[in-house]
Design brief:
The complex is a heterodimer of chains A (about 110) and B (about 150).
Chain A (H helix, E strand, L loop, with lengths): L1 E7 L2 E10 L1 H17 L4 E12 L1 H16 L4 E4 L3 H9 L8 E2 L2 H6 L1
Parallel strand pairs in A: 2-3, 3-4, 4-5
Antiparallel strand pairs in A: 1-2
Chain B lengths: L4 E8 L4 H13 L6 H22 L6 E9 L2 E8 L7 H4 L16 H8 L2 E7 L3 E9 L3 H4 L1
Antiparallel strand pairs in B: 1-2, 2-3, 3-5, 4-5
Classes of the chains: A alpha/beta (about 110), B alpha+beta (about 150).
Chain lengths: ~110, ~150
């Protein structure tokens, strides 16, 4: 699992590559929270286009970050082009809480 | 038609074995020539059951997880077993969004994912003895795909 982060305006952009499961999600969670809180950011964009696997541990991770953003008065959005990932997001009800975009630019402008 | 074949895998309840287990089962299931989506479904369901064994069965302690799979014709049957804590209330555990470990940011969606991605799911569990999750999936035959 590779994670990289970037800051654009008050957005934390998180790009994930590889497999997001229980084993990898703990490290991802720590890195996201560290960047988000240390830089006093408001919003978050999770770019999942590089993921080739995600299970319900990913749902837990995204739900947790959704709560963090909401507590700070910000919002979270997803960038994904995979029907497999979107199926899991939809099943968990996450699509009712956040939007999915095709690119990072679309997620930020909105 | 694929002749009957079976496999058995036993490993320690370490989280880095989650990917190992799902990749092994997916490689075994490949003998049935599934679609990529069908293979993803199996991988995800296996990952959920193995993760449950590690987090809930053994609560991160050391134990053994046993994965068995049987393929025949267009069907795969998988069982994932631990000899850990067991589940006191299986119906409750299977409710969507229910988690006994909300502090760990668990989504409570593990069994829901297994039910959705597989065709059949059953859970046997005895408190103090362990849990066995059995699931099955019927792959569409090659003729159906074409």
């Amino acid at each position: 699992m590779q994670i990289s982060t970037d800051i654009i305006k008050d957005y934390l952009i998180v790009t994930l590559q590889g497999e997001l499961d229980h084993h990898t999600s703990e490290n991802v969670r720590k890195k996201i929270d560290q960047q988000y809180y240390n830089n006093n950011l408001l919003n978050m964009v999770l770019d999942l286009r590089g993921l080739n696997f995600m299970d319900s541990s990913g749902i837990g991770l995204i739900m947790g970050r959704y709560k963090s953003c909401r507590e700070q008065g910000g919002s979270i959005s997803i960038v994904s082009t995979s029907s497999y990932i979107e199926r899991i997001l939809k099943m968990s009800g996450l699509l009712k809480l956040m939007k999915v975009y095709q690119t990072i630019d679309e997620a930020i402008v909105d | 038609m694929v002749e009957k074949n079976s496999m058995r895998l036993e490993f320690l309840s370490k989280s880095n074995n989650e990917s190992f287990a799902r990749v092994v089962v997916a490689a075994f299931a490949s003998q049935l020539d599934p679609t990529l989506e069908e293979l993803s479904d199996v991988k995800t369901a296996v990952s959920e059951a193995v993760t449950n064994a590690i987090i809930h069965g053994y609560e991160y302690g050391e134990g053994v997880v046993i994965v068995e799979a049987i393929i025949e014709n267009n069907r795969i049957e998988i069982s994932i077993e631990d000899r850990g804590n067991g589940i006191a209330d299986i119906d409750k555990a299977m409710e969507p969004f229910y988690t006994s470990k909300p502090n760990l940011e668990r989504s409570g969606m593990g069994f829901t994912v297994m039910e959705t991605f597989m065709d059949e799911l059953s859970v046997e569990s005895h408190v103090g003895k362990g849990t066995k999750v059995k699931m099955a999936k019927n792959f569409k035959s090659l003729s159906d795909k074409e």
